[in-house]
Amino acid sequence: SILIIDFGSQVTQLIARRVRETGVYCEIWPYQKADDGFEKLRPKGVIFSGGPDSVTREGSPRAPEAVFASGVPILAICYGQQTMAVQLGGSVEGGHAAEFGRADVEILKASPLFEGIWEVGKRYPVWMSHGDRVTRAPDGFEIIGTSENAPFAICVDEARRYYTTMFHPEVVHTPDGGRLLANFVHRIVGLTSDWTMSAYRAEMVEKIRAQVGTERVLCALSGGVDSSVAAVLIHEAIGDQLTCVYVDHGLMRLGETEQVVGMFRDHFNIPLVHVDASDLFIGQLEGEADPETKRKTIGRLFIEVFEAQARKIAEDGKGAPSFLAQGTLYPDVIESVSFSGGPSVTIKSHHNVGGLPERMNMKLVEPLRELFKDEVRALGRELGIPESFIGRHPFPGPGLAIRLPGGVTREKLDILRKADAIYIEEIRKAGLYDQIWQAFSVLLPVQTVGVMGDGRTYDRVLALRAVTSVDGMTADFFPFDMTFLGRAATRIINEVKGVNRVVYDVTSKPPGTIEWE
Ligand code: XMP
């Protein structure tokens, strides 16, 4: 495996993504605990990430000496390059303003790092971070790639197998970066691609069996990809010791509940309790217009309904479940250095099935803890979950309630469901679904005048939204062409009673959020 030591770069996770794409397992450890990580993982190679600090600052982060002492190959990126330089006896000069930008590196000498990718004497685009820079390399190092503003762009010690770059190979703006990382992993460290989803599946099945023994596991299914993949995997491991509970809040999209329940019961034969709590949820949301209160109400009711159901299951004579299954992913467990941990403003109180364990005092089974989202999708495919389900856009825990500004009623839900289904169908027909991170409709509490046939209408406005994003943290609106929007709007107005006007949301995030509430 590969150990990635995190010095706080915003893009450390991308290094892990690229390494795993080469079929090799890796973990990210913060530099403060890198000694433990090195000890535990016993990696065959190490990568130092970039970071925001300056090595010239007293007390700035350093890599563990044990890593150098072990003799394993190291790839050191940006801040990593600088800390390696000072730790091995070179020097670094500060005082340059940190700045990201495109640069061209000229290759001066061949190296296994770019074998088969870059040729000597040519120039290649990379994404550089200008800030502090190395001014004298440690003994044994040699510059093999250079650029105008970064004389030490690529500086290596082939004998010790230490490779350092001032640019970031992990970002997409370094087009050949993924292949350079693959060369490091395969040619230099010598690891073969054995991190596959079928291997992971077999390994996790064994781990789940060992962890759970003969006890029972409860899983709250949300209808999303993560909890579904976790449930199918756990069922493969322990069969009917698993009980899934689907709390139906009545806020799902058209046909969605039927799809989830059908898939679990009929396709996978997994015991599933479908709790129809829609009257309870919709009843309490009817007179409530405040977005935060809506979110909190949904979160509270969900826990109440789930707990009541858990008590019922415990009374079926087969003993109380002692484990709760969770679809926690790797990005949620990485202790990122860049995470400030300081007080931050709550923009929205998130509801998903993840808030349960604190209350329920159960042990956790988290078979996806080591995976990134796209790896979860790959595992889902491996487990035979249909592509149409796996490739779906994210859907928020509070469901359609936060896509209906104002109080929630069955009538409004009905209009929104029909309109949204048409919108999504048109997106699929146009072949755009997979280019979009998330697309959905919002039914506005606004009525406007229209004319249909010879008559006057006074109906609601529907807003369409579609965004591109990498992680949901930032987003751009999707640039549909107007013909597409016109077609979708015409169909919605003609086919959905209650909507007579359609608008498109062109707000990015920030300053907007993706959802409207
Ligand atoms: P915002 O609206 O905050 O959304 O820009 C970012 C992403 O998170 C999703 N979202 C949620 N997901 N529970 C969830 O599981 C929630 O309460 C929730 N609120 C927003 C949203 O759909 C988008 O993908």
TrEMBL record:
Catalyzes the synthesis of GMP from XMP. The keyword Oxidoreductase does not apply. The keyword Nucleotide-binding applies. The gene is guaA. Keywords: ATP-binding, Glutamine amidotransferase, GMP biosynthesis, Ligase, Nucleotide-binding, Purine biosynthesis. It catalyses: XMP + L-glutamine + ATP + H2O = GMP + L-glutamate + AMP + diphosphate + 2 H(+). GO terms for cellular component: cytosol. It comes from the Bacteria. This is GMP synthase [glutamine-hydrolyzing]. ATP binds at residues 222-228. It comes from Aquibium carbonis. Pathway: Purine metabolism; GMP biosynthesis; GMP from XMP (L-Gln route): step 1/1. The active site is at 78 (nucleophile), 168, 170. It is an enzyme of class 6 (ligase). NCBIfam families: guaA_Cterm (TIGR00884), guaA_Nterm (TIGR00888), PRK00074.1 (NF000848). Homodimer. GO terms for molecular function: ATP binding; GMP synthase activity. Pfam families: GATase (PF00117), GMP_synt_C (PF00958), tRNA_Me_trans (PF03054). InterPro entries: Class_I_gatase-like, GATASE, GMP_synth_C, GMP_synth_GATase, GMP_synthase, GMPS_ATP_PPase_dom, Rossmann-like_a/b/a_fold. CDD domains: GATase1_GMP_Synthase, GMP_synthase_C. PANTHER family: GMP SYNTHASE [GLUTAMINE-HYDROLYZING], GMP SYNTHASE-RELATED. Its EC number is 6.3.5.2.
